[in-house]
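Q: Hi! First time doing this. I have a protein sequence and I read that you can turn it into a structure. Is that right? Here it is:
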Amino acid sequence: MKNFFSSKKFVSTAALLAIVVSSQASAATITFNDGTAAGDGSGLTSKRLADTSHATNNGANGFFVETFDAATPVTLPGTVAGTTDFNAPGAAGDGCAINSTGSSIMVVGTTDDIQVRNNSVNNGAAAPANDSTCYAHTPAVDPNRDPNTVDSSVTIDYSAFLAAQSEPVGITYLGFYWGSIDEYNTFSFFSGDDPEAVVVIDGETLTNASNAGNQTDPETNQYVSIDFTLAEAFDRVVISTTGIAGEFDNIVIGLASRPVPAPAGLAFLGLGLLGLSFSRKFKK
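A: Yes, that's right. Below is the predicted 3D structure, encoded as structure tokens:
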């Protein structure tokens, strides 16, 4: 288990309450080689899932998985029908889909940035080790693209999905099966409008010249788990590559309930009334 991140620090002198809140540790913990065999032939998946066969996808135990297979739609509140817009042309896209898109879980990118398929293409995309199902990769396969000038990224935005839940929730866990890891693949996690990433993971952290991009080596085909505190829970992930290609499957998110904060106005009103009470006692 390794930590490759910089936690945000908060400083406040306005009130004791703010100081207490800011003193609580906030961190994200990254765990590599954290997967278990998936029962549907997709290689590795998260140990956190109640059903690793991916037969259901209803948020059991607070977790659900994006398999990129049309047969496993997301069935949580706030999700909508999936799309085949990003499927590779022809038979390579049969049975594939990004399962929840549009107004709930948004995929922000073009068909040049991300593609979903169930096969491998020389010099284009390789299925993660032991994955015979659909998977996603960025960028899309383009035989005319110069591999030295690739710059592709796609954003998976969960903010509308989180807002649609019946109670305040945050994403405190994300796992994904990272295939044939290359040093030019990067996963960056963001929260709200903050331009600074909560966590950044790049392939260079895990690879070296001898095994980068290997399609079968367990060292370059890993299930990665990230546990976030609620203080740093993310709502969007940016997957980018400057080469060909970045492959991934079985994205699992885990939801946790957020405490409902008291309205700031009521808090200050309470402090004001408390101060007024003390003032009257001293005047007597």
